[in-house]
Amino acid sequence: MNGRDFSVGVVVVGVRVGVVAGRIVALPVRVAARMPLAGSVVTSAGGRVSRDGAAARAVVRSRAEDATTAVLAAPELERVVDRALAAPLPDAVVKKLVDHVLASPEIDRVVEHVAASPAVRAAVQQQSRSLAEDVAARLRSRTVWLDDLVEAKARSLLHRSPRTVASPYGGVVTRTVAFLVDVVLLAAVFLMITALAGVAASLFGHIGGWPLAILLSVSWTVAAAAYFVLFWTTAGQTPGMRVMRQRVARAAGGTVGFGRALLRFVVLTFGFLPLLVSAVLILFDDRRRGLHDLAAGTVVAPR
Fold first, then answer.
1. Is the pLDDT of residue 132 over 50?
2. Which of 89, 144, 167, 289 is the least crowded, having the fewest Cβ atoms under 10 Å away?
């Protein structure tokens, strides 16, 4: 027989006997409390006993908390925890614990909660916006430098004097990058629309050969005209020009009307592509105006 176990057992038995005895003692007290005359006296005495018991329980709880705090702050417990954490665990046990944690539905709920939280979404949007702004800023600075470089080279080849003051107007490289961004956006939208239109047209028959080529060419020209004219007249800039911080305005100041915007698009389409006249004029004009700008009386100025 183990002496330590026997002592613990005696304490447990004593506690149980005390609880039973307390219930037996409290039984006549409860009965007396219900009597008319003795009820008030018993209730008053029972209240004092209850208050004493509550005070004693509070003292015991306070001492127990102090003892628990002392145990947790003891250096011996810290050493025990350090030895337990430093003890080598079998790889199989570690792998099983990790797999169990990762496979638990609680982890999925935690991940979903974190991913759906407004703070995470705001942080992702802020990071994406900051990254896009940094890329656009670097692109703008590089294109401005290339504008000056290409213009200086072209002027030196024709023995023209270089600019003494940097021009704030959009140059060839800046305009080209903005135009490419617009073409990519326009092409993506145009392809989606034509794909839907092709599916709808296939229900009524097949169109191919030169009629299809003519239809696509006309549709592309109309879509491009609508795209550029709409943005020039409403916002003063296309999405590509917005990225490059440029805008289209009248040479004398003010917004561009529908007639000027349409004339600018027509001259840009049929003057820039075959002869590159606009690019040459941009390199040597004081305000970097192309043929379409001279015809429409517009400039491409910083926003």
1. yes
2. 89
Other Cβ atoms less than 10 A from the Cβ of 159: the count is 6
CB-CB contact of 143 with 202 (8 Å) = no
Angle value at C-alpha 252, between 246 and 256, nearest 5 degrees = 55
Contact 32, 38 (CB under 8 A): yes
Residue 42 pLDDT: 46
119-136 as b/e: b if 16+ CB within 10 A: eeeeeeeeeeeeeeeeee
What is the C-alpha separation between 266 and 263, in angstroms, rounded? Answer: 5
Query: Looking at beta carbons, which pairs linking 158-162 to residues 24 or more positions away fall under 8 Å?
Result: 158/284, 160/284
Q: Which of 89-103, 127-141, 144-158 has the lowest mean pLDDT?
A: 89-103
Q: Which two tokens stand for residue 257?
A: 């009307």
Could you tell me the sign of the dihedral formed by the alpha carbons of 80, 82, 86, 90, in that order? positive
Q: What is the pLDDT of residue 7?
A: 53
The region that residue 87 occupies, defined by phi over 0 for left and psi between -120 and 50 for alpha, beta otherwise, is: beta
pLDDT at residue 167 tops 70: yes
Please say whether the dihedral angle defined by the alpha carbons of residues 188, 194, 200 and 202, taken in this order, is positive or negative: negative
Token couple for 271: 């003057």
Bridge partners for 301 per DSSP: 247
